[in-house]
Amino acid sequence: MAETQVRCVVVTPEKTELDTTCDALTLPLYDGEAGILPGRAPMVGRLGFGLLKLRNGSTSTEWFVDGGFVQVTREAVYVLTDRLLKREQIDKKQAEEDLAKATAMKATSPEAISLRERTIAQTRAKSRLAK
């Protein structure tokens, strides 16, 4: 019998933030995006910053994922991330301030150890502002 739902478990350092089932989900990977449907082959991936989208029928729920890792098994999709926020919980003003600060960083400043750090900070802020 074919599976019809995917179990999604999201864990942060503090607690299990989400443990639910859905028809399908989309994850922001470090180098793109992955869609997961029931019966998906197992995989492990590095998460990027962006939206985790859970779909049930015509309803969709979106969460901001702050990097981490994903493991897809036969039983579930396990997401390990530093932070998970519902889209409504994102403070747009704070994200805009973070983007401005990241953009102003110099690669030699104490806040930005390298150009890579600056790029990560910019990507994180832009992901929170994405619609």
Comma- or semicolon-separated keywords:
single chain, 131 residues, alpha+beta, ATP Synthase, domain 1, eight-stranded mixed sheet, 2 helices, 8 strands, 45% strand
Summarize the structure.
This protein has 2 helices and 8 strands, in the order ββββββββαα. The chain is of the alpha+beta class and 131 residues long. It has 2 domains: 6-87, ATP Synthase, domain 1, CATH 2.60.15; 91-129.
Description:
The protein has 131 residues and is an alpha+beta fold. It has 2 domains: 6-87, ATP Synthase, domain 1; 91-129. The protein contains 2 helices and 8 strands, in the order E-E-E-E-E-E-E-E-H-H. The chain has helices at residues 92-104, 115-129, and strands at 6-11, 16-22, 24-29, 32-36, 43-56, 59-72, 77-80, 84-86. Strands 1, 2, 3, 4, 5, 6, 7 and 8 form an 8-stranded mixed β-sheet that branches. A hairpin with a 4-residue loop joins strand 1 and strand 2 (16-22). Helix 1 (92-104) runs antiparallel to helix 2 (115-129). The mean pLDDT is 84.
